[in-house]
Design brief:
five-stranded antiparallel beta sheet; Jelly Rolls
């Protein structure tokens, strides 16, 4: 199926028609593609956008003017909960932290439980940085860890035996700073990330997180308007990602949003009056009955 390019006759103003889709990530609204994570959903439009054969349509734009999300995803999740430690006795250890919402203090408790006897952890309240001390053997926090930006280190970080080492960066237990809502019907927005498992170059709306954990985020904007790649849509897939391109885990809590389609036409197609339909039926272009046999 080929799509039309928006070639607009500037001598005549286009007529704008608007259609609204009110969607959610509830199972009754669409097909949940990642279960209770509720961040990837496919919707059957059932002919809602079908203008490929309509010669009056120049192009269609889409926007997401209204979004309601719940800040129910965990600070430490399946994508950032792994610590890899290499010890000078040629031993590599991997620690997986339980997912959940942590503070600097509760993280230290969990760290001490997991890494007991290997590394001692303390927290510098003046700098908001962790101080680690390797016990028995010198150690290295490996760059292959995914919990590095939570703890406050970057790349391979050496811990000399018995020396208190302050990590380079502040510990980070802030919620996800923004949610990128992506849609497979356009290719306009972009987040400059090369990581993650999803395509994050199709951002329809970028929602800043100005809410506390487990509170609602309400976002309204008329700023972003994108041209559709096609004039006919049968299904669409909505994905909600973080800036790393990873799908958000909303832990069973639904999101709500609105899609606004604006159809730009040269003219509004009119239905012929009944008497004109009869006139057409009486023309010589209509096949005679015997021509059907």
């Amino acid at each position: 199926m080929t799509s039309k390019l928006p070639i607009v006759d500037t001598t005549q103003p286009l007529i704008r028609d608007t259609k609204i889709l009110n969607l959610s990530t509830q199972a009754s609204s669409g097909n949940l593609l990642n279960g209770d994570m509720k961040s990837k959903v496919s919707y059957n439009l059932r002919g809602f956008i079908d203008y490929e054969t309509d010669e009056t349509v120049e192009y269609i734009s889409v926007s997401m003017p209204y979004v309601v999300l719940c800040n129910s995803n965990y600070i430490i999740n399946a994508n950032n909960n792994r610590l890899v430690v290499y010890r000078a006795n040629n031993q590599t250890l991997t620690y997986t932290f339980p997912v959940g919402n942590y503070t600097a203090t509760t993280f230290m408790t969990q760290f001490a439980n997991l890494v007991s006897g290997i590394i001692t952890i303390n927290y510098n309240t003046l700098t908001s940085k962790y101080v680690l001390t390797a016990n028995t053997y010198a150690a290295t926090l490996k760059a292959s860890s995914t919990i590095d930006y939570i703890m406050g280190f970057s790349g391979d970080t050496s811990l000399p035996l018995g020396v208190a080492t302050q990590l380079a960066r502040c510990a980070n237990f802030l919620p996800t700073p923004r949610y990128n809502i992506c849609c497979d019907i356009l290719n306009n927005g972009l987040t400059l990330s090369t990581t993650g498992n999803e395509n994050n170059s199709i951002v329809l709306a970028s929602v800043p997180n100005n809410s506390k954990n487990n509170n609602l985020i309400v976002f309204e904007s008329d700023m972003n308007e994108f041209i559709l790649k096609t004039l006919t849509l049968n299904t669409i897939t909505i994905s909600i990602l973080d800036d790393n391109g990873d799908l958000i885990d909303f832990n069973g809590i639904s999101s709500y949003f609105q899609l606004r389609f604006q159809i730009f036409r040269r003219q509004i197609p009119k239905v012929l009056p009944f008497h004109q339909i009869l006139d057409l039926a009486n023309t010589s272009d209509i096949l005679e009955p015997e021509e059907y046999f």
